[in-house]
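Consider this record:
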Amino acid sequence: MPQTTRNYYEILGLNRNATAEDIKKSFRQLARKYHPDVNPGDGAAEETFKDINEAYSVLSDEAKRAQYDQLVFGKAKRKPSVNNGYPTNNRTPFDTWTVKDFNQTTAKRPKVMSPTSSKRDIEAKLTLPLEKAYQGGKERIRLEDGRSLEVEMPPFMLNGQRIRLRGQGINEGDLYLKITVARHYFFEIRDNDIFCQLPLTASEAVLGGAIEVPTLDGSVKMMVPKGVKSGQRLRLANKGYPDNQGKRGDQLVEIQVLIPPEPSAEELELYEKLRQIETFEPRKNLLSSN
């Protein structure tokens, strides 16, 4: 075998007699081992991962594999065409490739289709954190066939939305990504409104004032009225989630007045003074019919 040609069988740890199942199994094992997500910042592992994908892209396709074997090992499985007892000069496009041409072309991952194969669309599921679904950006996905793709996600993704990636399916078919927006620990999406619960101290609830509230755009100041009650809802206009037309809803902020679990000695002293002077009697009319 010419030294300038890469041995794809060796890259996958196989011999020339490997079955399609052997190739698939070896690829999956090596891809898991050298995947960039498993080896962050490891340049050598990343290059090995690229080599593994390149080898698999050729050996997993029956037509590409036959052409590769013919070029590299010089053993064609077909007989040359004959015209009046003499070989013809009609050669397939592959027959005219040099070793150098083959290496350069496979590095670009050519789309050579088997005559018996056909385009097939495939679907994959992708779960995004709420912040990534809102902001968009690059996201790396891993497909069932072992391929790893880096996708530029648009902003304002919706739960259940489908994204079409042309030519990323089987044999130049399309890939459809079905988006799931993961549940968030603080925000809850309700249509295009966002719901959240904001804890306040008793003094903040009584005195009111400007309170910082987290939103998808960062923290904003919200004016809390004096005497706000636990369970009361305040509204931040246009801070909700954009719909498919780009129109934003509101952020609904439910107030929760909380008691400190472990007040300091000084706080307890102040609470004691407050109890002695406070005029509010919450149980005054507890049994009254009025």
